[in-house]
Amino acid sequence: MGLRLASLGLLTALGLALSGTVKASAGDAAREPARVVVAFDRERIEPVIAEGVAERASGREVAANDPVRIASISKLVMALAALRLAEEGVVDLDADVSDYLGWKLRAPGFPDAPVTLTQILSHRAGLRDAGGYIIPLGESLREKLADPASWHADAPPGEAPFAYANLGSPLVASVLEAASGERYDALLERLVFARLGIEACVNWTRCSPERIARAVALYRDTGEPARDFPGDLPPDCAIPVAEGAACDLSDYVPGTNASVFSPQGGVRIGMVDLARIGQALVGGGKGLVSAQSLAAMLGSARPGVEGQAFFCGYGLGVQAIETPGRTCLDDLFGDGAVRFGHPGEAYGLRAGLWFDPESGRGLAYFLTAIPPRTGAEGTSGFDRREIALVQRAMRLLEERGRRPR
């Protein structure tokens, strides 16, 4: 019988002193990549696993709330900000984004088809990553989106088949900036992070020096440093910058190119704080979005996505996994419960925020130094080490007396 998260005990310390949290010995930690799992329900948050080194040169052991680049889970955070601005009447998710950008955005060959935030957040706007999706400071978002390689050629936005595209995120973030007049990093702070009392940021732009000092460095499976190692952190430049451009956001105009904040994957947050976002979502959106907005978000991921092997259920910045009746490579928990959330994969990291709105329970986790996807993993789009970590955490929870409901 599959395992299911049940009532969780709140630990008295969620930082370096993690009573009951499984940690490697000092000798093992010096050799092991960082891995963290944090469980949550509607009332409590409990670190389950925190082991390995956050940064190899110093040998600093990882703690449960050390901030890490969560890759594409950032898209879920972006979607929550968009829903909140829609509730405030600042944006209309179904309006032509050209109305906010101040210039006409159209897919080549489809001059009469508007592009909307709903389409982009759901990866149905016809955008493609073939032409690249990183637009550094000093380059033009508008020019990138004029490239035919950035679009599906055979159908207009809204009718184009689902295609997971990172390029949509800089566009969404730029629209939110243009509509609100606020920089994307400030928007996330106001609309998401501050509401929950957590310290997180994008590309380190609004994190304190103390928080940055706790950064989890990302390493590839070869051992090569990939991101957020010493020398890749502030005061060194931590945003994408075009050759010859200054690493200076003082003159940045909101709405022109929010790609500099890496909205597709650049959120830095600890797993305890990420669990707080999950906790708000299993609590009906409390503190973040209305119950109505949350229901629309989760409902958008329930219809099946035709032709997809992994993203079989995907809507407004959220994915549904292990949905009955679908043949899909998304088996992670294996306990029969449908969960919502988002995966993350980049720079040797695998991560996830997954929650069951019925039971009100979920996990936030990451692991590092994972080999790149080969396409031959067979039974799941999740890495086998990722699955093993989640299953291990579930067993530990059961051993602590967390019985199925």
Automatic annotation (TrEMBL):
The keyword Secreted does not apply. The keyword Signal applies. Residues 1-24 form the signal peptide. Keywords: Signal. Residues 52-371 form the Beta-lactamase-related domain. It comes from the Bacteria. Coiled coil: none annotated. InterPro entries: Beta-lactam-related, Beta-lactam/transpept-like, Diverse_Enzym_Activities. This is Beta-lactamase-related domain-containing protein. It comes from Erythrobacter litoralis. The lineage of its organism: Bacteria, Pseudomonadati, Pseudomonadota, Alphaproteobacteria, Sphingomonadales.
